[in-house]
Amino acid sequence: MMKKNEYISCPLCGAVNYDSGSEIVCRRCKHKIYHEKSKSYSRSLAFLITAIILYVPANIYPILITNQLGKKEENTIIGGIVSLWEHGSYPIALIILIASVFVPIVKFIMLVYLLVSVKINTDSSSVDKHKLFYITEIIGPWSMVDVFVVAILATLVHYTYVSIIPGVASTAFALMVVFTMLSAHSFDTRMILKENNDGAS
Amino acid sequence: MIANYFTFFLIACTNCYFVMIVTMNDIPLDELVICDECHSLHRKIKLKEAKTAYCEVCDNTIYHSHENLLKNVTALSLTTLIMFVLASSFAIVRIEMNGIWHDLTLPFVFVTLFKEEFFVVGLIVSFLIFIIPMIYILLYTTVMLFFNMKIAKEVTGKFLIVLAKLKPWNMIEIFLISVLVALVKLVGYAQIEFGISFWALIAFIVFNIYLSKKIQLLDLWDLRDEIYDEKK
Q1: Four-residue CA torsion sign, A62, A66, A71, A75
Q2: Mean pLDDT, contiguous 10-residue spans, chain A (201 residues)
Q3: Between the N and C ends of chain A, which has fewer C-beta atoms within 10 Å?
Q4: In sequence order, which residues have a C-beta less than 8 Å from that of residue B57 and are 6 or more positions away?
Q5: CB atoms within 10 A of CB B151
Q6: Chain B contact probe: residue of A155, A157, A159, A176 with most B CBs at under 10 A
Q7: What is the pTM of this model?
Q8: Does B93 touch chain A (CB under 8 A)?
């Protein structure tokens, strides 16, 4: 099982390469596989912190402003979910709840855990950690649903007496999703392998 | 002798094969494959047509065998490109309030957001749902056409790298879900009608998912090696 660490797959073309521990150029696509590990760690951490900070205004400020006959109605993410639930559209309320509340929080927790487990030895196996990382990458984009919905509503509803305008939170939320995705992408999966092997030996 | 170097065996289920973890090195790198999900190392096995190889550790799909990969993917990518043109040229949904119709077209989402002075959201959204899917499918088709003509080896390599980088940012299927959510929110306030592009968009998304999930970029790289080595 120790031999596992010597191979690495290129994230761009999937070709298997020997892992020398430092910067490698993929034998097939001739593209640099990873940058320095320390850089990758701090970059991932920095993006994650930015995303967490952006998550605060994304929840405090209104994401959707409805302008009806001069009467302004502001909706935050949570407020929107609550009003959808009260109107009886439960599936939509659930989709929004999962996509814009659960997914970002779960992603934050997973990334924080992965970054912490690089520095501090945790008991989980490297296979589990790789799976965790894989899940973080898969679920990430789905939190964009709310921003897209706001964008679509704003495009469709701009009449003289009723219009929908995106709120400040939509900017913060969109940036938050982008930064969490950047954080996940800059996380070097070799850090998982290294820690696990150190712990095993 | 070979048996000493690696242990691999097949568990033949009705429709699937598991690839066994490799225990020794000294195997040519081209015969190895690493699982995306759990990063365990496997030795590739030759699959019968239209079968799938699964990871021994986590049951994740590692690769498929394809019949006529080159011809099928070329045809599919051209179809997808046509569907994309259709999906972005007409209205996806139309709504009516007091006799005035408003359309939602893919390129116009960001025009409206720019008018409302939401530049950041406008930029991000237009990139994720229009510009990146467009570049993705254009490059994909170009690569497949070059493969067919057996020209421009270096260029296809560069394009495939760009494709791999763009892949996670292609959010067109999430956009479709968002359209449905937005429509549910509008039910009762306005009259809703699906435009021509709605169906084209669905077709585009189905083909796009097939092209980016079922056909892995790994397959295209293997195909590329195959094609340009034959030429020599």
Answers
A1: negative
A2: 60 77 76 70 92 92 86 86 86 88 91 86 77 86 89 85 86 92 84 53 34
A3: C
A4: A127, B21, B35, B38, B40
A5: 12
A6: A155
A7: 0.83
A8: yes
